């Protein structure tokens, strides 16, 4: 179902754990990498591959905020909303991003480039507020820095 | 049983060791509020309502996860605890819609009750809604309103642990957690247990939606009529309408039966047959081509005079009576008595054909020790031969799963078809179709093991293993279905002597070895799915799903006990009270049909559709029935057989008449009348005795069904000492067994007959090794013969074309 490299990677991942199902998180990342988000077919395929029930995979995908079950933009702008970031103005940053890109929270821009999301604690409370763009962290952001980051990506 | 002493709120109490504190408190009259705790499910401790203070432990403890210990000092009520509880309620209410006026659960809602008892009427915070969708249907029988959920996860645990179906699950996280499933549509056997255990209005029964308020319902415990397990149901009625059947209502009341909180799709969703518009509402007499409505007097007189005429002309032996195996004991008994005393014929039988378990063979040497659901749940080893209880007797399947999961029982299976229970089996052997008897022979005669293995198409090692496990086990329940044919069923009587445990030490050693192996397997294997055996050390604590908390598990007097999975609700009762033709020396039902027009001139058929059961031979049966001078039919529905009758009487369903039935564990249970008869219907026994009276023999029951049962208890040894009152007070009472005396069995002859059957097996039949592909419950739903709104839905499933592969 996936590229050969990714299929091999799944095979390899399965050897890391005593029980196949334990590999569900890394395998879901592979699915997301292939399709941009986790599709229905991915859930079924992974369930079959890891000897799980589709409902169990669905449970995992929907629980973690870093997996998406809907199409998302090329860049996921994830603003931490947990308490340290919130106190230092995370809400204002979220609002600014939405206004700048003309989208609602959790929505994707019409060109399919950006999705603005709020996420739970990213573990960078000492450098709050934090913005995560896909896998990159940007610490102590303010509206000016956010503008710069986004403009570079456009 | 080991006990401990502890103090609850200053009172010293004694409790079984290892029992959960929440249950011990309840046993001693201290109710602790709870949402997630449910007897018979793994502890979850997510709702935090049952917190108590235990001395010497610094923090408050959840009573639902705390096993009691000696010297424990517990405080269940204080300002501190009250604060915590009302705080939890406040949290739960912060994103609950509080739409009680339109919620079907209102009135029997645990969230309402807990809020009233332990919470405050306001909440200071308001979260965003859980999900934009308000209410949706997620299966043919289940509505889901995610907003009302308190995420106790009782439903998902029921689905996993009781049903092994994993059909619903909790998705999303935090305050957005809702009950849902992949694709938003639930593919399952529609048992509906998730709805019963739901403490709020999140999951609702579709047929009961907006139909009645719980406080308007009159709830009567009675017994389900649709399979031989004999589950109790709580029948909810309003204005003489049978509205719902549940195992457990929202207030936690159950019918107190052998099934406790469990019920399947048939018991729950087929009750609308009772009020079906297709029911016969008045007696009818044939006038030429048509059946014409008549008064009761006309019809009864017609039937009586015709019967008397034929008896006069052709003699009593020209008459025959056929009853259905789902009728109550009283109906069948009166029918038998009517045949013997009024008609003067030995030809009386309950309809059973060769595709069913041969009752006569099973009871040939006495009444074997029968295993109740409790015995199954507490067995060391269960061997299942020739049946899939998941699709035929769901309560038995539940008990098997329970025994394997909670009590580490060993499950051995011998089947020719795939079954979902194979996941729980230690060894599942697929045999050639029709060769289940060969396996029984292999167990009894080790010297024939090669020949039987070849005949059954299985490995010799498999058979040796099964035999070894049976030898080493202390308590074995043998569950068999209709794939096991007559001689093999008869041979089961030899198990007790031929497979006796060599010594107690051997059994103990084998049990310990098995438990060790299980532990290793759970910890280390690359097992598929979730382990079928229990991996959570806490769950062994909730040990008695169908017992009073703390009761000693039931044991049978013999090593082997049996569960014959009969097809109909009262097959065993019919046999016990002597309706089996082979016991009366008369013709069997099939022989009566074949003899029609010759030796048999009139048939009296009660509750059975002979044409519907003809199984491909319909034209033959139709011709035979056409030759009769008189065909009398009593039935609820206008069946094909009723359409060809000379006189038709409308009879009551199980919901409209009182009586008793005997389940496959030999337990006599009282069926209560929950609504008055629909239309002009009368109970079957009443119709039969009215005709008897017109023919000159008054049975003297005076319209009292109790009087019939009194006579049954006097005449039938197995029912001695039973009365309706006793059954009403004590619930299910098992008939006394008269286990076969091994000296009375001609062993050599029996084994020779078995060998001859084994040698006749056609070895060219392929062994079915396919995976199970049908939707869970598809055969179960197909069992239900009547056409009603919900039974149609059950049969149709959700209307999707491709079956879902299980496990998906």
Q: What can you tell me about this protein's structure?
A:
- The complex is a heterodimer of chains A (154) and B (808).
- Chain A has two domains: 4-63, Orthogonal Bundle (Arc Repressor Mutant, subunit A), CATH 1.10.10; 75-153, 3-Layer(aba) Sandwich (Glutaredoxin), CATH 3.40.30.10.
- Helices cover 46% and strands 12% of the residues of chain A.
- Chain A is built from seven helices and four strands, in the order ααααβααβββα.
- Chain A has helices at residues 4-14, 24-35, 40-49, 54-63, 83-87, 90-101, 143-153; strands at residues 75-80, 114-119, 131-133, 136-138.
- Chain A has a four-stranded mixed sheet, with helices on one face.
- In chain A, β3 (131-133) and β4 (136-138) form a beta hairpin.
- The mean pLDDT of chain A is 91.
- Chain B has 808 residues and is an alpha/beta fold.
- Chain B folds into four domains: 3-77, Roll (Ubiquitin-like (UB roll)); 90-275, Alpha-Beta Plaits, CATH 3.30.70.20; 284-355 and 568-734, Rossmann fold, CATH 3.40.50.740; 361-521 and 555-564, Dimethylsulfoxide Reductase, domain 2, CATH 3.40.228.10.
- In chain B, the strands form seven sheets. In chain B, strands 15-14-25-24-23-16-17 form a seven-stranded mixed sheet. A five-stranded mixed sheet of chain B has the order 2-1-5-3-4, sandwiched between helices.
- In chain B, a hairpin with an 8-residue loop joins β11 and β12 (232-238).
- Chain B starts with a strand and ends in a 12-residue tail after the last helix.
- Mean pLDDT of chain B is 87; it is low at 525-550 and 798-808.
- The interface between A and B is medium-sized, with 20 and 20 residues.
């Amino acid at each position: 179902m996936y590229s050969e490299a990714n299929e091999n990677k799944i095979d390899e991942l399965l050897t890391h754990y005593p029980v196949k199902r334990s590999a569900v998180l890394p395998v879901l990342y592979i699915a997301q990498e292939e399709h941009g988000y986790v599709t229905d077919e991915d859930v079924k395929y992974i369930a079959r591959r890891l000897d799980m029930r589709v409902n169990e995979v669905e449970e995992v995908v929907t629980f973690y905020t870093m997996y998406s079950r809907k199409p998302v933009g090329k860049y996921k702008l994830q603003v931490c909303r947990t308490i340290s970031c919130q106190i230092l103005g995370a809400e204002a940053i979220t609002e600014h991003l939405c206004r700048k890109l003309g989208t609602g929270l959790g929505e994707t821009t019409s060109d399919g480039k950006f999705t603005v999301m709020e996420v739970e604690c990213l573990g960078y409370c000492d450098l709050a507020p934090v913005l995560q763009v896909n896998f990159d962290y940007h610490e102590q952001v303010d509206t000016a820095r956010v503008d710069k980051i986004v403009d570079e990506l456009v | 049983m080991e006990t401990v002493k502890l103090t609850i709120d200053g009172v010293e109490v004694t409790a079984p060791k290892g029992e959960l504190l929440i249950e011990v408190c309840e046993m001693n009259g201290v109710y602790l509020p709870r949402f997630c705790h449910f007897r018979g499910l793994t502890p979850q401790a997510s709702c935090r309502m049952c917190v108590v203070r235990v001395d010497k432990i610094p923090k408050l403890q959840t009573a639902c996860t705390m096993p009691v210990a000696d010297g424990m000092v517990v405080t269940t009520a204080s300002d501190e605890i009250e604060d915590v509880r009302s705080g939890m309620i406040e949290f739960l209410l912060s994103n609950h819609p509080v739409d009680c006026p339109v919620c079907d659960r209102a009135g029997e809602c645990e969230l309402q009750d807990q809020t009233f008892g332990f919470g405050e009427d306001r909440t200071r915070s308001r979260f965003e809604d859980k999900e934009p969708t308000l209410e949706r249907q997620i299966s043919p029988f289940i509505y889901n309103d995610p907003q009302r959920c308190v995420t106790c996860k009782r439903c998902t645990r029921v689905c996993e642990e009781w049903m092994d179906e994993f059909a619903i699950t909790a998705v999303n996280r935090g305050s957005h957690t809702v009950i849902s499933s992949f694709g938003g549509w639930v593919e399952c056997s529609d048992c509906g247990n998730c709805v019963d255990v739901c403490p709020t209005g999140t999951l609702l029964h579709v047929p009961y939606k907006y139909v009645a308020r719980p406080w308007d319902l009159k709830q009567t415990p009675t017994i389900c009529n649709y399979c031989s397990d004999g589950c109790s149901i709580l029948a909810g009625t309003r204005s003489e309408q049978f509205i719902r059947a549940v195992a457990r209502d929202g207030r936690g009341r159950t019918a107190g039966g052998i099934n406790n909180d469990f019920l399947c799709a048939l018991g729950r969703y087929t009750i609308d047959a009772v009020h079906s518009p297709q029911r016969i509402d008045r007696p009818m007499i044939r006038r030429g081509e048509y059946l014409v409505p008549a008064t009761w007097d006309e019809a009864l007189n017609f039937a009586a005079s015709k019967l008397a005429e034929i008896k006069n002309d052709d003699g009593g032996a020209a008459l025959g009576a056929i009853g259905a195996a789902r009728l109550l004991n009283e109906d069948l008994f009166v029918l038998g008595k009517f045949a013997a005393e009024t008609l003067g014929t030995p030809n009386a039988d309950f309809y059973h054909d060769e595709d069913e378990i041969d009752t006569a063979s099973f009871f040939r040497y006495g009444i074997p020790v029968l295993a109740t659901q409790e015995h199954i749940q507490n067995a060391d080893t269960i061997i299942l031969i020739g049946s899939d209880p998941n699709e035929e007797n769901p309560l038995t399947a539940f008990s098997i799963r329970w025994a394997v999961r909670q009590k580490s029982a060993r499950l051995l299976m011998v089947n020719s078809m795939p079954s979902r229970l194979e996941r729980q089996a230690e060894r599942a052997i697929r045999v050639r179709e029709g060769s289940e008897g060969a396996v029984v022979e292999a167990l009894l005669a080790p010297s024939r093991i090669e020949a039987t293995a070849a005949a059954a198409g299985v490995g010799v090692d498999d058979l040796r293993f099964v035999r070894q496990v049976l030898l080493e086990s202390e308590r074995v329940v043998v569950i068999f279905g209709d794939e096991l044919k007559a001689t093999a069923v008869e041979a089961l009587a030899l198990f007790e002597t031929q497979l006796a445990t060599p010594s107690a030490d051997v059994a103990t050693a084998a049990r310990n070895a098995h438990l060790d192996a299980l532990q290793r397997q759970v910890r280390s294997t690359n097992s598929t799915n979730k382990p079928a055996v229990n991996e959570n050390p806490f769950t062994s604590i909730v040990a008695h799903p169908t017992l009073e908390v703390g009761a000693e598990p039931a044991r049978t007097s013999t090593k082997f006990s049996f569960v014959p999975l009969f097809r109909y609700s009262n097959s065993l009762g019919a046999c016990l009270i002597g309706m089996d033709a082979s016991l009366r020396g008369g013709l069997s039902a099939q022989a009566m049909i074949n003899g029609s027009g010759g030796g048999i001139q009139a048939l009296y058929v009660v509750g059975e559709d002979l044409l519907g059961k003809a199984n491909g031979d319909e034209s033959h049966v139709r011709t035979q029935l056409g030759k009769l001078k008189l065909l009398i039919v009593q039935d609820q529905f206008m069946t094909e057989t009723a359409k060809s009758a000379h006189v038709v009487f409308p009879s009551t369903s199980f919901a409209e008449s009182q009586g008793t039935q005997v389940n496959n564990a030999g337990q006599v249970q009282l069926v209560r009348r929950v609504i008055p008869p629909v239309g002009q219907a009368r109970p079957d026994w009443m119709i039969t005795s009215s005709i008897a009276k017109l023919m000159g023999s008054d049975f003297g029951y005076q319209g009292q069904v109790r009087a019939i049962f009194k006579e049954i208890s006097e005449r039938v040894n197995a029912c001695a000492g039973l009365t309706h009152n006793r059954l009403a007070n004590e619930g299910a009472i098992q008939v006394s067994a008269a286990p076969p005396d091994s000296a009375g069995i001609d062993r050599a002859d029996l084994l020779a007959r078995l060998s001859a059957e084994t040698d006749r097996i056609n070895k060219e039949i392929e062994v079915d090794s396919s995976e199970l592909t049908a939707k869970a419950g598809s055969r179960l739903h197909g069992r239900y013969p009547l056409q009603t709104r919900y039974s149609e839905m059950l049969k149709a499933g959700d209307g999707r074309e491709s079956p879902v592969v299980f496990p998906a």
